[in-house]
Amino acid sequence: MLDLILVVIAIAIAIATGGPGGPDGPAERVETASAPKVEAADALAHSSEAPPPSSEADPAPVRVLPYTAEQQVATGRFTTAVEVKPILGATRANWIAVREFNGQDLVYVTHLWAWRCGLVAIHVGINGADPEPWPLPDCHEDTNAPNAMLPDDGLPYRAFPLKSVDSMTVEVIYDDLTTEKITFNRQGALMP
Predict the structure, then answer these.
(1) Can you give the chain as a three-state secondary structure string?
(2) Which domains can be identified in the chain, with CATH numbers?
(3) Which pTM value belongs to this model?
(4) Does residue 165 surpass a pLDDT of 70?
């Protein structure tokens, strides 16, 4: 029944706009002239404007990562970048947390550890410092929950002096070797 209604609507629109089968009969194909293609170099030669500065600068050097990309096959176990990248992309605000506890600032990466099987590395920089590698526990491929955090994996935080952490830069390197880098301020990452 819905199909019939949609067909009737389509026919009514075609008639109202003079489309195929409309009041003027079948529509004719009308071709319009388009502006000639102008190459960028030709456009600059005939323009009084200078090119933007960025167009003259050398491209940024490609960063070579010391890792090898892994094959990207969805396994349903969340062990590849193709599976965890959408999740981490949607939960960027949770990548890192700061907690004031026992007279210290504790910086947590628990959320990233929970999706680590699709990553090759994470780097964290505190207060504007260059991000440094933060060890990731191994993925537990031989279990039903490869991303699970087990007691032998260590602790997903580091301690700093109280109120000393003002900003954190997190770089995530996926196992397909794509990267994402985000900077958080203390207020945005502070746990209540």
Answers:
(1) CHHHHHHHHHHHHHHHCCCCCECCECCCCCCCCCCCCCCHHHHHHCCCCCCCHHHHCCCCCCCCCCCCCCCCCCCCCCCCHHHHHHHHHHCHHHCCEEEEECCEEEEECHHHHHCHHHEEEEEEEECCCCCEEECCCCCCCCCCCCCCCCHHHCCCEEEEECCCCCEEEEEEEECCCCEEEEEEEHHHHECC
(2) 81-189 (2.60.40)
(3) 0.62
(4) yes
